[in-house]
Specification:
Elements (H helix, E strand, L loop, with lengths): L4 E4 L4 E8 L2 H16 L9 E9 L2 H19 L1 E12 L3 E11 L13 E2 L5 E5 L2 E9 L1
Antiparallel strand pairs: 1-2, 2-8, 3-5, 4-5, 6-8, 7-8
């Protein structure tokens, strides 16, 4: 099984690389890595679904906005997500249509790990190397 993501050391924050055979898969794994910082996503049941549509001028802004929207939904609707599906189209702008599936946060079921306060642009990267996509994300804890 291919590695979906890996964390790296960042002072006072959390950083990770997420991987995929497509940009969409790398974005999905970036979302999974962010929620894995907050809880054990294996215990988040697929009970609620949220759809997200975004536009951005570049891939980095699209990644930032995707993760930021998921964090907004977590904070405002008290949801943890564990499954993600993303479709990205590029014309004049990058367009993302995504789906996140999860459940209401329940501390008796869901382990509460680190609190992700914000998604940052610091060192954010989206790149393709040898047919594989990788994205770098740093979040404020």
């Amino acid at each position: 099984m291919k590695k979906k993501f890996e964390y790296f050391e960042v002072t006072a924050d959390a950083g990770y690389w997420a991987y995929g055979s497509t940009m969409e898969e790398a974005f999905e794994n970036a979302a999974l890595a962010m929620f894995e910082l907050m809880t054990d996503t294996r215990k988040v049941q697929p009970k609620k679904e949220k759809r997200i549509k975004l536009e951005a001028e570049d891939e980095i802004s699209l990644l930032h906005d995707w993760l930021d929207e998921l964090l907004f939904l977590k904070d405002t609707e008290f949801l943890f997500f564990s499954k993600f599906k993303v479709n990205i189209q590029k014309n004049r702008l990058y367009r993302l249509e995504g789906k996140a599936v999860g459940d209401n946060i329940n501390p008796s079921i869901h382990e509460i790990r680190d609190e992700v306060k914000a998604v940052t642009y610091h060192l954010m990267d989206v790149r393709e190397e040898k047919g594989q996509y990788k994205v770098r994300v740093i979040v404020d804890l």
